[in-house]
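Lab channel / #folding
Pinned by the channel admin:
"Please post every new chain as: sequence first, then the structure tokens as a reply. Keep commentary short and put observations after the output so the thread stays searchable."

First post following the new format, from NK:
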Amino acid sequence: ATAGGVDVDAAATKDINISGGQIALVSKDDDASAISLTTNVGTSETIVVTNTKGEGEGAITLTSTAGGIDMNAAAAKDIHIEGGQVALVSKDDAPSAISLTANVGAAETIVVTNTKGTTANAITLEATVGGINIDAGDDDDIDISGGQVLLSSKQNTANAIKLTTNNGSDE
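Reply from TO:
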């Protein structure tokens, strides 16, 4: 270790076991990667964080009180999230507060799939106060198909349901 530092080292096939009431890793350095968990030996290595007995909603919590949280995976690999319910909730009053974006190549798609839901609202897009905007490229279709297509308005006004094309003389 450098002056004042501590190195803990073990042979490649041996463990370093730290146990106690609570284990706190606290950095005293204002530096990028102030705390870093890194593996860099071979293609089979993984990093695992496991809470075996905690049952609370925050049994494992990642918190950044002032900055963001960045999750990255290799281009051909997935970031896999699963659980009882998956809730993406924004704390920001801003445009694109929640954004699903694909921006790498012409073959990419975004798919929302419910494989087992059988109710009429198995997938719901709901804006409780504002509107919903569905837009496609100028030469692309918006394809809506199903058993029945139901368009219903919540307003009792003229043009409550309006289909309009307004892009030229051949419409």
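NK: The CA atoms of residues 73 and 79 lie 7 Å apart.
TO: also worth noting, The chain has no helices and no strands.
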